[in-house]
Amino acid sequence: MSTRTAKALRTPGGLSVRYEPRAAVAVVLLAVLTVAAGVVLIGSGDFPIAPGDVVATLLGDGTMAQEFIVEDLRLPRVLVAVLVGASLGLGGAVFQSVSRNPLGSPDVIGFGQGAAVGALTVIVLFGGSPTAVAGGAVVGGVVTGALIYLLAWKRGLHGFRLVLIGIGAAAMLTAVIHYLITKADLIDATRAVLWMTGTLDGRDWAQFWPLLAVCAVLVPLVLGHGRPLRMLEMGDDAAYALGVKVERTRLVLMGSAVLLVSAATAAAGPITFVSLSAPQLARRLTRSPGPNLAASALMGAALLLVADWAATNAFGERELPVGVVTGVVGGVYLLWLLVTERKAGRI
Amino acid sequence: MRAAGLLAAVGVLLLICVASIMIGAKPVPLGDVWHGLFHNSGTGNDVLIQELRVPRTVLGVIVGVALGLSGAVMQALTRNPLAEPGLLGVNAGAAAAVVSAISFLGVTSLSGYVWFAFLGAAVVSVVVYVLGGSRSATPVRLALAGTAATAALYGYVNAVQLLDSAALDRLRFWTVGSLANADMATVRSVTPFIVVGVVLALLIARPLNAMEMGDDTARALGAHLNRTRAMGMVSVTLLCGAATAACGPIVFIGLMVPYLVRALTGPDMRWILPYAAVLSPVLLLGSDVLGRVVARPSELQVGIVTALVGGPVFIHLVRRKRMAQL
């Protein structure tokens, strides 16, 4: 189907680029949706601002009060949400593509738990600052990623083995998390459970800049490996025959994805199911094969913004952490995915 | 040969029970154990043994039996070496139901929330079985369905804890899986359920043997497939629900023990079930004793020890050659 819809753009000099119109339109639409959701989210809260005023304020034409609210309070939160969502979507797309399984996404196979163990260790045992907690999350996520990769490695990487070993590791890590929570006093325990649910409350520029630095390096790196990744989906042997350096590509991609997911987790806690659902939704939207990296990243950002809006506005006075919304919606989506995948005979 | 092995296993279980009575924050010498058990005269050690160590040991034994048997029955029913109540979300279902009962309905006593644990365990085991593909379930599908259910349910448990910090304070100890708060009232209220579950499990040993060979062969051999499945599910629900209500979700016991037992006895369920029933409490109590020793003067909850011991066994299972072609 995709070969039929793909078009080539030729220049007089003899260069050509192949592109798929539907995928390109989907990417543009998702970008527009992300920006629109961001503007609405900035405008909503205890002090509502109309979307037009938000745009004006962002362009520098707002009142003092509006500038303070938009630029100091709400803009950083929205930007963090965009980057976290994009990192999770992109990381999830890479994992699902490498494991060749929609369920091989980081939140099913234990990275969330690994990052949570790192962060909780810092919270409970050292009473660390938010920066130290973020560092702990990154270390925990990366170590977990390396361990799962090594354990799943046995004359090549088998998708289901990666998933099952991840599930085993997740069970062990969950035990460690529970242990750390019982060790804590009630205040630290509440902080730990809140962190584990994943929230964007109180995110400011301090979380934004490190995350932006990580994304600025890794997102282009991953997007640049989109073509070899697409060939990897056809199997190691076929990809090798097509000239892909299989192991190196996979290591670079998995490493980047683990870092992206860990950095996102460090900034906002383990927000579940975004990395599972974003690539799947993006794939259905673009209807093109392959990992759909750019569309997945944008879909992740849009999803997280909408979920955050729902979490803060849909429950009346009570603001819930965004992780509760993504957890419940994503859990239902995961079950639906299991049913449809089974009917299609893919798992 | 296998009978002698079973006797030896019972001997090991008795030794572990004695060790469980002796070892703890305050060690009790062997002579005092005898005295405390049979000539209770109210000395400090006698009270300690009667009030704390004996209930804890007894609860460990019956919960161990329950978890091991439910794992063995589940693996036989699904013909799947990875089937395990903890992994398939049954314990999480019980946990979610108990959490709801504690937080929303104000249920505080064990005899009150044991029913919610059964309800949660029953609903989730059916849901996971159906999602996993019912008859055509493969190990991967079941494990994934279980993981999905567990993830969603624990998300819910976390959310409830977050909205109700009094519940968090009570639940964070319960959700770990611990024998530390055992008393004779707990033992008394779960024992009837576990006894029924054990009897049901032992009754279906023979038809389960037939079902190992596939549905058609089993039917030809005269096994009642649906009746066996139904009895198996009831048994698993009773055993898991009671065990989870008594001491919180404990994972991997039901995975490890039947796997190890199968290596000892071969595939005959009539031997696997008794062996699993004797060796699971050995593992559970052993983990509990280990948890009391490694983190002195406080202790490591048994659910944590079993997960840390069982995780590597699970990963080893997955890495085995045959499992690679799931």
TrEMBL record, chain A:
Keywords: Cell membrane, Membrane, Transmembrane, Transmembrane helix, Transport. It is a multi-pass membrane protein. GO terms for biological process: siderophore-iron import into cell. GO terms for molecular function: transmembrane transporter activity. The chain crosses the membrane at residues 21-42, 78-96, 108-126, 132-152, 159-181, 205-224, 251-273, 293-311, 320-339. The keyword Manganese does not apply. It holds the Pfam family FecCD. It is found in: Cell membrane. One of its GO terms (cellular component) is plasma membrane. Belongs to the binding-protein-dependent transport system permease family. FecCD subfamily. This is ABC transporter permease. It comes from Streptomyces lavendofoliae.
UniProtKB/TrEMBL annotation, chain B:
Its main location: membrane. It is a multi-pass membrane protein. CDD domains: TM_ABC_iron-siderophores_like. InterPro entries: ABC_BtuC-like, ABC_transptr_permease_BtuC. One of its GO terms (molecular function) is transmembrane transporter activity. GO terms for biological process: siderophore-iron import into cell. The chain crosses the membrane at residues 54-74, 86-107, 113-132, 190-210, 230-260, 272-294, 300-318. It is found in: Cell membrane. It holds the Pfam family FecCD. GO terms for cellular component: plasma membrane. Keywords: Cell membrane, Membrane, Transmembrane, Transmembrane helix, Transport. Belongs to the binding-protein-dependent transport system permease family. FecCD subfamily. This is Iron ABC transporter permease. It comes from Streptomyces lavendofoliae.
